[in-house]
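Dear colleague,

Thank you for sharing your sequence with our group. We've completed the structure prediction you requested, and as agreed, I am returning the results in plain text so they can be pasted directly into your records. Please verify that the sequence below matches your submission; if there's any discrepancy, let me know and we will rerun it promptly.
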Amino acid sequence: MEYIKRDLERKFLHMSEAFKAVMVVGARQVGKSTMLKHLAEGQNRAYVTMDDTQLRTFARSEPRLFLQTYRPPILIDEVQKAPELFEEIKIICDESDARGQFWLTGSQSKKLVKKAGDSLAGRLCILKMYSLSAREKLGIHPEDELDFSLPSMIARKSLFPKNTLPDTFDNIWRGGLPDVQEKDEEQLGEYFNSYIETYLMRDAVDDYGITDTEGFRKLLRACAAFAGQLVNFNDLGVSADISGATAKEWVKALQSMGVVFLLEPFASNELKRLTKTPKLYFCDTGFCAYLSSWTTRDVLMNGAASGHYYENHVIGELVRNYAYGKSKVNLNFFRDSKMKEIDLIVEDRGVLHPVEIKKTGAPDKSAVKAFDVLKNAGRKIGTGAVICMSDAVLPLGENSLIVPSNLI
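Please find the predicted structure tokens below.
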């Protein structure tokens, strides 16, 4: 399979110029190793993987000797399997001012991030990688940061093909794991089944001490059924025949594995009676569709859950876009006791951009009606957007745009 350029490449190389060590974390099979090996081509950079039993044993038992044998600059794959290396990496970093000496990949587990962060504080930059975005699949990499202004969106539109429902739902149903992009329906099902058994179940047992593997499988499927909704751990527990407290712990494990993410509600001292419950989304919609037995793109596209999957897809694309971008933004949703709701609020440099997500080609002004509640939030309000299946960028109301979903 031909290499697919990743949006994270720019940020990774930029951080490698500033930090002595850079680590890419993320879910299994999202392409961490492939990207770093691609970036290392033509460099005099050693490559070792801790998946190799002999190398792992050597690294764990003799970390100093290991790094004398495999000297930086070096790419160490699956570094979480040899945490003994971190102290030696720290010593080498402190002996030299050279940047980018260590390129590391690892699982997304909190244990790894904490261990690496504690050992390499001030020396290490940790970057998160997600599965492929729709833009990456198309090979489109806009140079400008995502900006909801009308001129910026119109300029962006010229880079993209027509926004169609079948193409959008092919992205949603297939998901973004690189290995599934050329698989047919039968192969895709077997791949995801193997993904659960080979990676998730093993990680659940080895890294999180979860012994009730059948209950964990049920929780995975329950999470898929509740994707895009407010989290209710008791309901998840009932679906998986476990307690609500256990469901909460296992959802935390799935977050650490990079399988799901929780979108936190917007908080403001000026706005009262806001919900405090997060919403659950899948990092990869293809995996979510498999877990809920949506066996083809068309069945999912025409099914009752298509709106939830479309929302999950749009929010996932925005999460990827901002994770790889230059400026840090906060992403939240809004819901108050009167059931007024905004699907997403993008807080960029102190400015709030309200976003509504609609699986329609022609939204009307009622779609932005809830945006008015933010006028009392005590923050500056920027351009809002209705991200939808329209193929044209159009103004909507006084300070909002209709934005085709494939532009994000």
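Summary note from our side: The radius of gyration is 22 Å.

Kind regards,
the structure core
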